[in-house]
Amino acid sequence: MAMASPRERSLLLSLAALLLLASASASASDDDLDYLIDNADDIPANDPDGWLQEGSPDDDDDLFHHHQEEAFDESHVFLLSASNFSDFLASHRHVMVEFYAPWCAHCQALAPDYAAAAADLAPLSHEVALAKVDATEDTDLAQKYHVQGFPTILFFIDGVPKDYTGPRTREAIVSWINKKLGPGVHNITTVDEAEKILTGEDKALLAFLHSLSGAHSNEISAASRLEDAVNFYQTSNPDVAKLFHIDPAANRPTLVLLKKQEDDKLTFYDGQFKASAIADFVSANKLPSVITLTQETAPSIFDNPIKKQACLIILLFVVANESVKFLPSFKEAAKSFKGKLLFVFVERDNEEVGGPVANYFGITGQETTVLAYTGNEDARKFFLDGEMSVENIKVIVEICPCTVPD
Ligand SMILES: *[C@@H]1O[C@H](CO)[C@@H](O)[C@H](O)[C@H]1NC(C)=O
Ligand SMILES: *[C@@H]1O[C@H](CO)[C@@H](O)[C@H](O)[C@H]1NC(C)=O
Ligand SMILES: *[C@@H]1O[C@H](CO)[C@@H](O)[C@H](O)[C@H]1NC(C)=O
Q1: Of 8, 18, 81, 310, which one has the fewest beta carbons inside 10 Å?
Q2: pLDDT of 194-227, one tens digit each?
Q3: Among 66-75, 133-142, 308-317, which range has the highest average pLDDT?
Q4: In a domain, 237, yes or no
Q5: Protein residue with least CA distance to atom 4, ligand 2
Q6: Phi, psi dihedrals of residue 91, rounded to the nearest 5°
Q7: CA 386 centroid distance within chain
């Protein structure tokens, strides 16, 4: 589960807004960027001028434009409240929930599309439901799910929420949900198929099971729907397992995450065989050991489940022409804290990303800086004194009150 705390989300949003400002004209067709643009002018729910107050700047817009409210059929959208929210989620495996405010113009604009998407999906009513919650009425629910802006759209799979950050149109919502309801996990039955996947994909998850259907397969399949960036495969063929470096005689189920680009290509799973735990494992381990900060990687850095256990992000700020000098030791250190801390490389003199982010952290000048950042409620930062080394990072980890799992 990749639920961000309110502090993380606001950090993410401010970094996102900052990156957006820095490159307003760059790659506008990018999905991630579209999301940032779509949400950049949403009213923050914690904005005292927006939250419980009647009226907002958007209302003035509406008065100005005198839109005619078109009638639309909202009969397939379930209105939920604190009294029936948990029961509803318990009785529906997949539920999309829109947290809205009655005065929010983005919510009003979404309403006809949301209603139409609900109608399109109504024939699948046993599998998926679209619902809405008035966040100004049910403030406790909104707080529980860290609603920070309107509308906030979450997709619950077995009660586990995931942000919907796609375009707010009927077509986009329907196709995104259909993908979530699809098979999710693909079968590999032959060595040929396995070889194709091994040559074709940078990242993949393989489950080695006794059977391609049943309880274990269902958990993998549910986990796959919580994860957008990695394809999930399952096999019961020992020869296929062998190609993925799984001992054919291993106990089943065995799960391995393959990352071709990394030095450490294989990560085996040893947690509980439950969808949410498996999805957390993939989310925490799918990133390279050192992540280069870009607009695309920012969300995965600041909204990463590793931070639930070890709240530290280690950021290396270095100018591009000096990175060859510092990156190797940074990568070496990252290996020792794999899956526990996030290591992020920030190109200090990159104007779009590095510059604004350095300013955000109060770093001036061009000298190489290593910063540890807690990124949670207390948002503390520690500057590394002395050389970049595993020992010195251990010192910071000891100063930081976070627990580092073994
Ligand atoms: C949930 O409760 C609200 C009011 O408490 C009610 O208006 C709504 O119809 C209920 N929704 C469902 C799906 O039962
Ligand atoms: C994978 O194989 C199982 C067992 O034969 C089958 O039930 C399932 O539909 C298959 N999945 C896909 C995506 O083809
Ligand atoms: C990197 O660039 C800066 C400024 O352009 C220069 O002062 C410095 O000497 C360069 N460093 C290397 C290692 O080339």
Answers
A1: 81
A2: 999 999 888 899 999 999 999 999 999 989 988 8
A3: 133-142
A4: yes
A5: 212
A6: -100, 0
A7: 34
